[in-house]
């Protein structure tokens, strides 16, 4: 397993604690409806989404939950590399009925954590991910796992992440502070909302909230909206007072 899976390599590291906080925040993000199928995406390439979902998967598994991590990034798959597993057989093989789902599931060094790698890269990723076969597969996995985590391509680059709205309970969007601007985040969130995607939150990667580089900080996407709303109300009150 790669050193970047710090929740496994160094569970007492502050970064590992940040992922445990992320686990808690997401668990209580929707009290009325349990979020069992979560999809992670990003605004663009190279923002660390695969590393983040891998660490989050470990954090979930460490809480005694049975977790399945599926690599649905059928363009630049990385999950098998992070966990140092083969990728000869994976999701595409299952969707094309070339093997049984159980044959594609791989164990990891982490108890309760299993993965399905991407498998061979197909010429039509979006069409495959939009298939009814994937819905059947996810429903089948729900019977065997507590949580299903999906690593999807960047929503700001291709449509693959958006087409997964029919199988996911919620989206987590990764934005690298050093790479992404506010407009990029806004467009990514808008794309997901246009397909009725439930946006659970945003992970600000490499945010300057710690002296340690690579520190991950989770916050609800709606907290920013609520903060903005309060700010606008305050500004209106000031204008009203001045008008008087």
From TrEMBL:
Top-rank taxon: Bacteria
Which residue windows are transmembrane per the record? Answer: none
Q: Which CDD domains match?
A: BY-kinase
| One GO CC term on file | plasma membrane
Domain AAA positions = 37-196
Q: Which InterPro entries match?
A: AAA_dom (IPR025669), Bact_polysacc_biosynth/exp (IPR050445), P-loop_NTPase (IPR027417), Wzc-like_C (IPR005702)
EC number(s) stated in the UniProt entry for this protein: 2.7.10.2
Recite the UniProt keywords alphabetically: ATP-binding, Kinase, Nucleotide-binding, Transferase, Tyrosine-protein kinase
Catalytic activity field? L-tyrosyl-[protein] + ATP = O-phospho-L-tyrosyl-[protein] + ADP + H(+)
Q: Which GO terms label this protein's molecular function in UniProt?
A: ATP binding; identical protein binding; non-membrane spanning protein tyrosine kinase activity
A Pfam family matched by this chain, by name? AAA_31
Q: What class of enzyme is it?
A: transferase
Similarity remark: Belongs to the CpsD/CapB family.
| Protein name as it appears in the record | non-specific protein-tyrosine kinase
Organism name? Eubacterium maltosivorans
């Amino acid at each position: 397993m790669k050193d970047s899976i710090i929740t496994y390599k160094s569970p007492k590291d502050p970064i590992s604690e940040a992922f445990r906080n992320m686990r808690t925040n997401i668990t209580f993000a929707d009290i009325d409806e349990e979020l069992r199928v979560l999809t992670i995406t990003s605004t663009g390439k190279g923002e660390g989404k695969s590393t983040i979902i891998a660490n989050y998967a470990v954090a979930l598994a460490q809480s005694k939950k049975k977790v399945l991590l599926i690599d649905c990034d059928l363009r630049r798959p990385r999950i098998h590399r992070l966990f140092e597993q083969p990728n000869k057989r994976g999701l595409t093989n299952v969707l094309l009925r070339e093997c049984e789902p159980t044959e594609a599931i791989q164990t990891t060094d982490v108890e309760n954590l299993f993965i399905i790698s991407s498998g061979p890269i197909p010429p039509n990723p979006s069409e495959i991910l939009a298939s009814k076969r994937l819905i059947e597969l996810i429903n089948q996995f729900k019977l065997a796992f507590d949580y299903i985590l999906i690593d999807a391509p960047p929503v700001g680059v291709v449509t693959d992440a958006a087409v997964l709205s029919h199988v996911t309970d919620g989206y987590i969007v990764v934005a690298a502070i050093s790479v992404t601007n506010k407009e990029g985040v806004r467009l990514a969130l808008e794309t997901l909302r246009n397909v009725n995607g439930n946006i659970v939150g945003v992970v600000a990667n490499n945010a300057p909230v710690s002296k340690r580089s690579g520190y991950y900080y989770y916050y609800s996407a709606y907290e920013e909206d609520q903060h903005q709303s309060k700010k606008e109300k305050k500004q209106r009150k000031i204008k009203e007072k001045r008008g008087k």
